[in-house]
Amino acid sequence: MIWMTWRQFRTQAIVGALALAAAAIYLLVLGLNIHADYDGSLAACIAKGCAPGLVSGFEDKYSTVVMLTDLALMAVPGLLGAFWGAPLIGGELASGTHRLAWQQSVTRTRWLTVKLLVVGLTAVIGTGLLDLLMAWGVHQHDTVKAARFSSLVFGARGIVPFSYAAFAFTLGAATGLLLRRPIAATGLTLAVFAAVQFVVPTALRSNYLPPRTADIRLDTTTLSHADGIVLSGSSLMIGGISLPDAWVVSAGHAVDPAGQPPNTEKLNNCLAPGQFDRTVDCLAEQDLHVTATYQPNTRYWPFQLIEAALYTAMAAALSGFCFFWIRRRTT
Amino acid sequence: MTAVIEAHGLGKRYRGRWALTECTLSIPAGRVVGLVGPNGAGKSTLLNLACGQLHPTAGTIRVLGHRPGDGPGQLARVGFVAQDTPVYAGLSVADHLRFGARTNPAWDHEAAYRRIEQLGLDPRQKAGRLSGGQRAQLALTLAAAKQPELLLLDEPVAALDPLARRSFLHSLTEFAGEREGRTIVLSSHVITDLERVCDYLLLISGSRVRLAGPCEELIAEHYRIVGPRRAASALPAGMAVVQENHIDHRSAFIVRTAAPLPKGDWRVERLDLEDLVLAYLVRDTRSHDSYDAHDAHDSHDLEGPQ
Question: Residue A100: which of B71, B78, B86 has the nearest Cβ?
């Protein structure tokens, strides 16, 4: 059965291997470039503090290419699930060859076990290798940027990509089994995987553990790193507040030292459109605070484990469904 | 006589429609069984239930004493050539044989290669490029080389030209003759095909078993009698009327009787298998149209003499 699974999978495996190899070469080149650049500039000064321009220059130089590469890496499990997972059983049902395969002296359960394990593990390992290579290549960039909780970076590093691959693959296998049409199953797999990959980081991830709260003083540093300052009436919202070594989940309205909403008149006086520095200095003088909820950086690996467990559980449930369906319903 | 396939009240429903109902039958070992019936009669359903591809909705079926498809041991004992003889289009003939060898414990490697050679198939040829007849032969080779005790074939020759059909049936007879006690069940709606290879007949119509028994016995027990016009009730006792025809002042009956036919004022003709099957099928279509006197005979005709 193992031989047969490989034999049937051969063409897809060759195409997949070529694509993975091309991606690996690209990641290797990117990684070597980043390493060479880092060694030539930041490596000498990072311990005692580099010039800010040097650090942000290094960060900006690679941030777009790293972001796009992360995005592409996030798509890899979905593509493998769609093009390897969906035809796995769906292709057999569509061509009728399951009627040949299931009449050999091998039970359907064993047939499915071997297929899921052989092709599924290949997908998981392929995805994982790419992400490990990426993690090596952009390690220094990640350290400088210090944003490993951001949606794209979190999903393309650590152990979660392995679980994404397992989930996407079993999702493909299950939709193929259910729809019996591999092309439709391929499309549905991509759509569902994309939806799940959108919902989990935006709605679920920040709640894996109860977030901590912090009182953040709006001093010049905090304000000048903010993405935006929004004022409406006496409500002042600061967008993109950051805390060192933490992932800020949400931030409330600014309050004055007494815990009251800030004086509207004073706020309005501070607003100097087009002169961001003056606004920042003026607001900083008022000694305002916001209450923010955040996930500390020490929770990075617990979060990776929780998310990997979540996706692995979904993969297990989908596999279980495949076994149930192939024995009870595909008759 | 041990039964290879034994079914009691077997039924299968697909999406609310019964494809087979109340099917009770017993197929003895060592026979080549022809399974006949009109399209949609439930032949395919019965074969798929017997190999474990389908599960029954109602009733029970035992094949070689066990539940069909129950574990690798049972799968090894039953071979199945599905309708349209599916094969992997992208895989070569040799790949198929290797697949068979790796998934069946009793695989007869030599026999499989010998058959492929006899058929003149190139082992390197992709199965998708074989002709319909070659594909059917490949499917039969796979099913036969696993050396099953029971081989089931679902309309294997339906799509073949006469030459390929003859060659396929010849291969099937060879397989049956290789070892004592092998049972083959072959479905078809072309009775002449079955006549050549089968020694046992199972007729399904309207999703029920209408007639079952060894071909020789069935032929020996059925007669066509043509004589002066009379009602079916005027015939001597012990004759079951399968079909009757009245034209002007003459009546023709197809009757079944286990006892020797009594002498009478009629001419007696023998029937061949095809006449026999058609008589039952024609009767079924009529009794579906109007429930008349024919229904009275149904209970007698359902089973052949055991």
Answer: B86
Supply the range of the domain harboring residue A285. Answer: 212-297
State the CB neighbour count (10 A cutoff) for residue B87: 25
Residue with tokens 């709260």, as numbered in its chain: A213
Residues B178, B95 within the same domain: yes
Residue-wise pLDDT for A36-67, tens only, equals 999 888 888 877 888 878 888 888 889 999 99
Counting the structural domains of chain A, the total is: 2
Which residue type is seen at A25?
I
- Do residue B191 and residue B243 come from a single domain? no
Total-model pTM: 0.87
Tokens 């190899």 -> residue: A21
Q: How far is B53 from chain A (nearest CA, A)?
A: 6
Minimum-distance CB partner of B102 among A3, A11, A107: A3
Task: Kindly list the residues from chain A whose CB atom is less than 8 angstroms away from the CB atom of residue B78.
Answer: 103
Partner residue opposite B82 with nearest CB, options A7, A100, A105: A100
Residues of A in contact with B55 (CB under 8 A): 328, 331
pLDDT, tens digit, for every residue of B98-140? 999 999 999 999 999 999 998 899 999 999 999 988 999 999 9
Interface contact flag, A104 B100, Cβ < 8 Å: yes
Interface test with A, best of B12, B45, B53 (most A CBs within 10 A): B53
Out of A179, A207, A235, a domain closes at: A207
Predicted confidence (pLDDT) at residue B304 exceeds the cutoff of 50? no
- CA B225, B226, B229: angle at the middle one, nearest 5? 120
DSSP letter, residue A85: I
The phi and psi torsions of B11 (rounded to 5 degrees) equal: -145, 150
Q: Complex ipTM, two decimals?
A: 0.84
Average pLDDT, chain A: 89
Minimal Cα–Cα distance from B4 to chain A, Å?
A: 18
Which of A135, A314, A309 is closest to A209 using CA atoms?
Answer: A309
CA atoms of A317 and A311, how far apart (whole Å): 10
CB B102 to CB A4 under 8 A?
yes
Query: Above 90 in pLDDT, residue A148?
Result: no
> Does the residue B211 lie in any domain?
no
Question: pLDDT tens-digit profile of B53-106?
Answer: 999 999 999 999 999 988 899 999 999 999 989 999 999 999 999 999 999 999
